[in-house]
Specification:
The protein is α+β, with helices and mostly antiparallel strands. It has a domain of 118 residues: Gcn5-related N-acetyltransferase (GNAT) (Aminopeptidase), CATH 3.40.630. Helix content is 31%, strand content 32%. The strands form 2 sheets. Strands 1-2-3-4-5 form a 5-stranded antiparallel β-sheet. A 3-stranded antiparallel β-sheet has the order 6-8-7. α1 packs across α2. GO terms for molecular function: acyltransferase activity, transferring groups other than amino-acyl groups. Pfam families: Acetyltransf_3.
């Protein structure tokens, strides 16, 4: 579990399927990441649990620390086809523009580059998703390449551990 000033991040499990479907049912939320049926959510969450077991990391439910209310997801995802570990975040629209994505992602980066010892983390963001691109840039990511993930175009941003640990403003 990762705890920040306002948030708690915990591993997602198959028990989160109903909530996962609700999170992704908002057209504005799923515009860039897609929606899920309950069966699709259960399958995706089983895959996330396997990553936690096999790699020691995965996606997390992000909850408000004070209430335990789940407000989004953030964490690390291994992409075998790219040989890359990606950070990703998705939040319920009611919780946009409050700095939660940046706060959760900062904590995940500290975990990934610290205890996990990752050398580089990517962020795969749809070209029209200017809000997520702004979060990535604020965190120190720079554009690496254009690609396609799950049949969707994306800009792949990257942040190297050495750049993350370098002194100075980000």
């Amino acid at each position: 579990m990762i705890v920040t000033e306002r948030l708690r991040l915990r591993p997602l499990t198959e028990a989160d399927a109903d909530w996962w479907v609700r999170l992704h049912s908002d057209g504005e939320v799923n515009r860039f990441v897609g929606g899920y049926t309950l069966d699709q959510a259960a399958t995706r969450l089983r895959d996330i649990q396997r990553q936690w077991t096999g790699r020691g990391h995965g996606l997390c439910a992000v909850e408000l620390r004070g209430t335990g209310e789940p407000i989004g997801r953030c964490g690390l995802n291994w992409w075998e086809q790219f040989g890359e570990t990606e950070i990703g975040w998705t939040f319920a629209r009611a919780h946009w523009k409050r700095g939660y994505a940046t706060e959760a992602a900062q904590a995940v980066l500290a975990w990934g580059f610290g205890p996990l010892g990752l050398r580089r983390i990517t962020a795969m963001i749809h070209p029209d998703n200017t809000a997520s691109a702004a979060v990535a840039k604020r965190l120190g990511f720079t554009a690496l390449r254009e690609d396609t993930v799950l049949d969707r175009p994306c800009t792949v941003y990257a942040l190297a551990r050495d750049d993350y640990l370098a002194p100075g403003p980000r």
